[in-house]
Structure formats: structure tokens, C-alpha cells
Amino acid sequence: MEALRAALEQLDVRDRVVFVHSSWTALSSLVDSWRQAIDLLSESIGRGGTLVMPTYPMRAYSQTHLDEHPFFDCRHTPSQAGLLTEIFRRLPDVRRSVHPTHPVAARGPRAVELTEGHERSSTPFDSNSPFHRMYESGAVVLNLGVRNMTFRHLADHLIQDSLPHDIYADRVTRVRIIDCEGVEGYMETRGHNPLIACNHWVVLNRMRRGGGLRFVQPLRRLLLRRPVTERRKVKGLLVEWIPVRPYVALYHRCYRDGRLRFFPRTE
């Protein structure tokens, strides 16, 4: 645990909004319990920081999930985003946003600000969403044992009018919701376009020796070459630190330069 504590102290997470993706299988080799992991994260960000975790209930594409499960109970619908996220959302001082596909749980001084109003989102990443508010607040993503980047969807949302495809499904789904106080209601929202792949790629202007091929690679690898991402191994655990605003700015720059490509989803 001390090795992970030292690594977190070297990262710029103090007094910030920190969005954590985690693999408990990988993390459990460094900490003794989920409580110890959550306490360590809270200690690292300090009392001025807000700890946020995804608590997505989906096991399928978001629109497929809406079609099959048009119901969300903030108090009881479990998270499928990892064991640590499910345990975190159940803590008494944690607030969860109300959304059927992309709810988050938060604890800290900005928890209410970040989570309230998600039930008003007509799409999961609009201006009412915690993701847009985390973007505005200068949040950072902390990946522990995983390589995830939910904010690529926010980056798409912010430039959706200029994209060559619709990023959201072409239909609205009416969903029955129960908020964290047990009040029942309804909301209308859309999931992502099921025909577009989640993994976007950057085309690099490099020439292979002896030919004219252009290389393609995941956007995340380009991030690692820029002063945007910090990445290290802590006794075998992959730790990534990615500030949201620079990530989105680089994503948009790659799109404007014609280097970002979107591929149809293949089953």
C-alpha cells in the first residue's frame, strides 16, 4: 500500500475532482481491502478534493441497455463498472447521479454540484451531466489497473455537429427512474449510436520504409507522447493520470487536423 500511496502523492490529485476507473483484481494486490483502497484515494485527494467513480449499470451498448432495461433505481440498481465502484456507491456519504446508462457516484465538497440534474440529460454527456461539469471543473482521470477514457464520449458530444455521423441513437427512450430519495418519475434520453465503434484511432503522417502506408493507432498512445498523460507501474499495477481538459483539447485538435478516424462497429 505504501508504494501506491507514494505514487499518488507524486500525482497532481490534491484538492481536485478525481474520476477513478479501477480494476479490483489488479488493485487488490496492493491493498488489503476495499475500505483501505477508498480511504487511500480519499486521503490522497484531501478534504478539498472530490472522489468520483462510474457506476454504470450496463453490460451492453448503452442504447441496447435502454431498450432492454428502461428502468433505473438510484438506490438499488447495481454498478457494473467494477467491484470498487459498487462498494463506493453504497457508502452513506456518497451521492449518485440519476441516469439509466451513465450514473456516477461522488464524495466530497463538490459531490452535489456534480451529480444533481443528470436526470434532465437528454443524452448522457450533455451540459446537465457530471461529465460536462467535471470537464469545466478541471477534473483528472485516474486509471488504476485499467486503460479507460469515458471522456472521449464528452469530446465527441462537444463537436457532434461537425462529426460525419450521429453519435447518439436516432430514437428517444422513455425510462422510469427512482431517485436517491425514493421518488419515482420518468425521463427521456438516448444512448449512443450502436453502429459506431467506441475506439477512435489517430492516423499518423508517417511513411513506412519502402511504401506509402500511413500508420493508425489508438488516440491514447498519442496522449502518452505528449505532456498530457503520466503513466507508471506500481509493483505491477498500471497507474495513469490524465487531466480532462487537455485530453479533450488534444482530441479536438486531432479531429480538426484530419487525423482522427471513426470506424464502424463490427460484431
Order of helices and strands: HEHHEHEHEEHHEHEEEEHEEHE
Main sheet characteristics: 7 strands, mixed
- Per DSSP E runs of 2 or more residues, the count of β-strands stands at 13
**Anisotropy-based shape:** globular
Structural class: alpha+beta
Strand content: 15-25%
Query: How many angstroms separate the termini?
Result: 40 Å
Major sheet strand order: 4-5-2-1-6-12-11
Total of DSSP H or I helical runs spanning 4+ residues: 10
Which residue ranges are poorly predicted, with pLDDT under 50 across at least 5 consecutive positions? 202-217
Average pLDDT taken over every residue:
86
Question: How would you characterize the overall build of this protein?
Answer:
The protein is α+β, with helices and mostly antiparallel strands and about 270 residues long. It contains 10 helices and 13 strands. It has helices at about 1-10, 25, 35-45, 60-70, 85-90, 110-115, 130-135, 150-160, 220-225, 245-255; strands at about 15-20, 50-55, 70-75, 95, 105, 140-145, 175-180, 185-190, 200-205, 215-220, 230-235, 235-245, 260. The longest helix is centred in the last third of the chain and has 13 residues, at about 245-255. The radius of gyration is 19 Å and the shape is globular.
